[in-house]
Amino acid sequence: MSWGVYAIVLWVVLGIDVGLRSMLRIGDSGIAPSFILPLIVFVSLYAPGRTAMIASLIAGLVIDLTTPISAPGGTTFLLPGPNALGMLLACQLVLGARGLVFLNSPITLIVLTPLAGAVWQIVVTAIFGARELYNPANFSAGSALVDGLVLSAYSAIPALVLWWPLRWIGPRFDFDAPHTGRYAMSRR
Fold it and tell me: How far apart are CA 154 and CA 7, in angstroms?
């Protein structure tokens, strides 16, 4: 995989994600779709397993470093790790499912994005819930999980929008995985 192309696409998608977050938010809840999640699902569908896992860890770490967390005293801090681990397990879900799906279908990205997002949000909620056990910070795991699952479902819309541009630049990623056969993207 071409890491330079991945870095540029991740940077552009992160800019779209951060830039449109306030405009696409549902009410006052702060729930907005993730544009990074469809990218990770796309990379996980086509890249070799280890490469996809590294790419998902990098994307999760970028999310961790661009999403400040509010502390009870009114301060904010950055906590690297929860989103990186969540994205890694979301990638594992897609890696397990990619032998069962048609890679050239946009339905694949649209269906796998909310499923991977659900795994991602369950892991993030579990990590913050475990943190709550030893350092109370008024974290409500139930509402955070519901918000995360709605975010996951809402991320199917960016998956639909990003499918065509990702397919167009897909050959520039230079995916070289043994699992891509007759259902893989062509190198034209």
Answer: 24
CA distance linking residue 56 with residue 89, whole number of Å: 9
Are the C-beta atoms of 126 and 96 separated by less than 8 Å? no
Taking each continuous run of H as one helix and of E as one strand, the counts in the chain are: 7, 2
Placement of tokens 């659900």 in the chain:
118
pLDDT in tens, 87-117: 999 999 999 998 899 888 899 999 999 999 9
How far, in Å, CA of 109 to CA of 47, rounded? 14
Q: What is the largest CA-CA distance in the chain?
A: 56
pTM as predicted: 0.89
Amino acid, res. 146? V
All domains of the chain in start order, with CATH: 3-173 (1.10.1760.20)
Torsion sign over Cα 40, 6, 9, 185: negative
Q: Residue 90: what are its φ and ψ, rounded to 5°? A: -65, -40
DSSP code per residue over 80-97: -SHHHHHHHHHHHHHHHH
Smallest CA-to-CA distance from 180 within 22, 30, 46 is with 46
